[in-house]
Amino acid sequence: MKLHPVDTGSETLRLMNNSDQSILSWKGIIHQYSRYLPVKSEDAVISLNEGNTPLIRADNFAKSIGGDFEIWLKFEGLNPTCSFKDRGMTVAVSAAVQKGAETVVCASTGNTSASAAAYAARAGISCTVILPHGKIAQGKLAQALMYGATVIAVEGNFDQALQIVRELGSIDKVEVVNSINPLRIEGQKTAAFEICDTLQRAPDYHFLPVGNAGNITAYWRGFKDYFSIQKTDRLPAMFGFQAAGAAPIVNGEPVANPETVATAIRIGNPASWQGANTALQESKGFIDKVEDEEIIHAYKLVAKTEGLFVEPASAAPLAGLIRCAKENRIPSGSVITASMTGHGLKDPDTAINNAGFSPIVIKPELDEVLKTMGL
Ligand code: AN7
User: Fold this and answer.
1) 40: left (phi > 0), else alpha (psi -120 to 50), else beta?
2) Ligand 1 atom 14: residue of nearest CA
3) I need a surface site. Which of 91, 146, 283, 306 has the fewest CB within 10 A?
4) Residue 1 has pLDDT above 90, yes or no
5) Residue 118: which of 85, 144, 150 has the closest Cα?
C-alpha cells in the first residue's frame, strides 16, 4: 500500500513521519513510544492498540468563530474506550500486572472507570471503580458494567471518592490507577508526541479541558520531552479551561460542591494542581473558566460545522477558543491544537437534551417526506 502526501493548503504533510509499516501495524502507545516510557515493549504489555488518533483540521469551525488561525483537533474519542484515558491506562495496568497486582481501583467521573475496567478485563484481573452517584454519563457507566468492573456509587463527589481510593492504595496486591499514579501521566504524554509527529512541528498553542489536571501535566511533559531532544523547535503555550462551577485552579481555592453539565470535569480539588501550575508557568500559558452555556454552544457548533461529536468536557477548550478569538488573544496565523478528550456518544442524554429538536414523526409516505423537507 502506498501512502500519498496530504496537501493541507498551507503545508504538505505526510500522514505520519514514522515508517508506513508502523501505521499499518499500530500496536499501541507503548510499542510506538517505548523509548520515552518507563514500561518497555519487550515487557508483558496490556494494550488495546490505543493511540494513533486522528488530528483533524477544523477550518469550518475556525471560520465560524472568526478565527484567523489554524485549528487542529486531536480526536481522543477514537481511542478503544473512547477517551484519552487509555493512553495512561495501558502503562499503569501493564506495570500493575508486572508487579503482581490482582485488583485495580480508581475514583472517576466516568472515563477513567471505563478505561480501567477495560484494561483490567484485558489483563484478567479485577477492577473496582468508585463513582459519584447519579453524576456519571450513561455511556461511561455502561462501559464499566460491561467490562465487568465492580461499580460502587458513593453519595458524594469525585474528590471524596478519590480520598477513599488513596487509602485503598496501601492494601497488598491492589493498585490505584488514578492519575496520582505517575505512570498514567507518562502514558498520556504520548498524545503530545503524536501531535508533533503528525504536524512535523509543535503547535504554538495547545488548548485542553482541565479537571483533575493530569492531562495538562502530561501534555506539557510530552511537549518538553520532544523539545529537549530537538524533535521540535518550539514549545506551545498551554491554555486550560475549567467549567465555571468547578474551577478551583482559576479561583485559586478548592470548590466544595463542584457543578457543571460537563460531568467529566466536575472536580473541586485537582490531584495534579501543582502539575497544572508548572505547565501554565513554564509555557507562559493561561487558564480560565467557561460557563455551561458556552460549553453547550461550542459542543453543538463543532458537531454542526465539522461533523465532530465530542463530549461536553471536550467542548470546554472550544468555548475557551471562541472567547480567545473574540478577545483577539491569538495572533493571526497561529497553529492551535486542542484535545477532544472524549467521544460525544459517551453522554447521549446531554446531546438529546440540547439538540434543540426531536425527530419529526410522519406517515410512511413520500409526499409527507417531501413536505417535511420543504421540497
Ligand atoms: C473527557 O474519568 O477525571 O484534567 O475520572 O473524562 O486529566 O482530569 C476525567 C477527566 C477531560 C479532564 N475530558 O482531564 C475521570 C476524570 C474528559 C475527561 C478530563 C476528563 P484531567
Assistant:
1) beta
2) 211
3) 146
4) no
5) 144
3-state DSSP percent of the chain in helix, strand and coil, to 5? 45, 15, 40
CB count, 10 Å around CB of 31?
Answer: 18
The pLDDT score that the predictor gives to residue 12 is: 37
Measured in Å, residue 292 CA sits from the centre of ligand 1 at 16
| Residues 9 and 60: beta-carbon distance below 8 Å | no
β partners of residue 339: 74
Cell of 363: 406517515
Question: 19 Cβ partners below 8 Å, 6+ apart?
Answer: none
**For strand 205-209 and strand 126-132, is the pairing parallel, antiparallel, or unpaired?**
unpaired
Contact 25, 34 (CB under 8 A): no
Q: Give tens-digit pLDDT for 185-237.
A: 999 999 999 999 999 999 999 999 999 999 999 999 999 999 999 999 999 99
The DSSP annotation for 323-359 comes to HHHHTT-S-TT-EEEEEE-BBGGG-HHHHHHHSS--P
Distance, CA of 65 to CA of 243 (rounded, Å):
20
